[in-house]
Amino acid sequence: MNFSQWLIAALFCSVSLLNAQTKDPVLFTVAGNDVKLSEFEYIYNKNNGKEADYSRKSLDDYLKLYTKFKLKVQAARDMKLDTIPSLIKELEGYRQQLTTNYLNDKEVTDRLAHEVYDRQKKDLLLSHILFNLSPNATGADTLQSYNMAMDAYKSIRSGSSFAEVARAKSNDINSAKNGGRIGWFTSMLPEGFYTLENIAYSLKPGDVSLPFRTKLGYHILKVDDSRPARRKIEAAHILIKKHKKGLPDGKAMLKADSIYTLIQGGASFEELARQLSDDKNSAPLGGNIGFFGINQYEPAFEDAAFSLAKDGDVSRPIETSIGYHIIKRIKREEELPFERAKRKVQSEIQRDSRFAAAQGTLIEKIKTEAPYVENKAALDRFAGQMDTLFFSYKWKAPENLVKEEMAKIGNISITSDQFADYVRSNTRNRLQGGDNKNVKETVRSMFNDFVAQKCLQFEETRLEDKYPDFKSLMREYREGILLFEATKLNVWDKASEDTTGLKLFFDKNKGKYKWEERAVVQAISIDTSDRNLAEKIYKYINKKGIDKAISKYDKKKSFISYSRTIAEPKNQEALAGLTFSKSSTTALVQDNPKSYSFRRVSELMAPGPKSLDEARGYIIADYQDYLEGLWIDELKMKYPVRINNDVFESMVKK
Questions:
Q1: What pLDDT digit, counting tens, does each position of 468-506 carry?
Q2: Long-range contacts of 463-472 (CB under 8 A, 24+ apart)
Q3: Which CATH number, 3.30.310, 3.10.50, 3.30.70, 3.40.50, labels domain 514-607?
Q4: pTM here?
């Protein structure tokens, strides 16, 4: 077991929020070191979860546990374990793993998840006018597309109908014929359309946006309507197709009506779907088409499905372009609590361009708070010193590079030689800038990336000050590492290495380590192709035993063999197919054309004492508990623990 596994199993299992408190009294002290109420409540709530009821018994039990924990930590500090280089390095490793993810989670993922969560409470009916533009469009093409979009926008503002302008000018042919209507949407929109999503959720029904750009080109967006989110629904359907050979449309409708009548009369929807549905993919599944959300099927189908009031309700036949559907609601997706919803969308958020955009916002926020000061003249001087090899693998910083401060983030200075090292080590980014051979633009772009990296590093140094929960988490890791090492030295290593002490402990407590009644299970193999012979031997063994059978049928010991297992009643695997009784036997089984086998209980062994070797695992565990108890008693004598009873009583709720 490694430290991480042990720490999680022993005490700590997740990150939770610690509410800042203006008054934070001392709950108890260990050797004069204060443990504040907030620290205890944080760990009590986190470790107990829903069981944290603040009853006197629950608080008292946990206080005893936590004071023991703090006694061990104090002992570890007195042993100078917190000065061991390997442990310091281990803690720093944990911090490095946590900080970037933690910062992104708190400042980026959390905000984006809240944004998605709030937006998913509402569906929007959208229309747009699109002016296509290639991702590699020239400046002239971009300007032309933008001007066309602005002309269309001005036309709408002057009184022209949005739908008329869409029909006349939109490059989206499918939506243009519908007056620009593209349907109902909800967050998250597909990758590349975060800007469109932001604008859509900022508009009110009837509002029209200014032109804006996505990966497709320039759009003008209109919100036609909004409604409470439909979310997702699991449904089944029975489809009767139109225009089916031998079944005119009128008869298709009559057939659907007759099936609906059968269902209303109590017939099984699923069985009728299997027999009669023309959807050959869902029919074998009783009509089940799984979960679906908005804008996946035709509006008539979706409207009918989402209008079903409760699970199990069945719609009247609904007409779509392909036929008539009878829809059954199986399950409706309800709104999740935020934390569960966040876990559901977190990976999508981190893959989406919105994550990079939000990180950019975080960088700007850090710059403002730090504050960030840039020496633009120094950046220009750096770019001016670059030679013709800048866009090649051979580039290295000039020997006469002016060494000066290029920027400052809080108290962190960014110097030209640091930036030069960054530029040299990021060859790929430097070479990508070589497409236009503009040194100044490439230097500026790489400097922005370098500053962003430094901003995150600066913010990571402030996590303990800004976030009490992160400070608590790092304290847990720090103390957990100390506790692990101290317990290893004082308990675990002693229990496994002190053979004399272990034997003395066993001699005093050997009455605890006993075998239950056990069965001797023989797994017998008869290597023969003669079924009659195998059955004779099978019966003889069950009557006379394996040894006499070998003497009678296999004196050369060439084709009858067996293995022996001793099993307690709880060993279900060893006793599979057998009862816990003498002579219990499984059937004779032919394993292959030349071999038969069976298993039998040859005898039952009476309960008896275990030897030290037989009980070693249990004895070591008990000896560890014994040594830990002695250690705790010693620590209580060495380090006085003082409880503030008034503070304790203030926590008790029942």
A1: 888 888 888 899 899 999 999 999 998 888 899 999 999
A2: 463/99, 463/102, 463/103, 467/102, 467/106, 468/18, 468/20, 468/38, 469/15, 469/16, 469/17, 469/18, 469/42, 470/98, 470/102, 472/18, 472/39, 472/42, 472/43
A3: 3.10.50
A4: 0.53
